[in-house]
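Entry — protein

Goal — fold tokens:
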Amino acid sequence: MSELTDIDITHLRRAIDLAGHAAALGDRPFGAVAVAADSAVLAEGVNAVHTTGDVTTHAELVAITLATAAGRAELLRGATVYASGEPCPMCAAAMVWAGVGRIVFAAAAAEFGPILPAGPSFELTCAEVVASSNVSVEVSGPHLGEEALAVFRAAAQH
């Protein structure tokens, strides 16, 4: 696992901040930031499953969809997606399909899973999903876990 740079920490903290915004809207506390190889922010996303009724509106997929809708799909190739929580198998697979080169996450699923209300979960980690593909994507995390877990704990109390 590579060491985080100051830029990584800034984007990861932004993803955690976005998770708080999602929770304030009544959604699960997940946020994501897609950043191009040149460090330009391509898109941000928050979990919107509750507010939209669409089970695919996880933060990482929202960020990828917004970047694509803005004509930035090519810039996703080799990009980094920062996520407040470990991406689920659906999101991990979508990032592989999008050509993302690096996934950096804060809290591990094994840590936030017990905090969240009961719901579907998977035993597969993000790294396992990515490793099962035929492309190389760096997966780095957990990082800043306690900062991210604070958002999950706050959301669980409301």
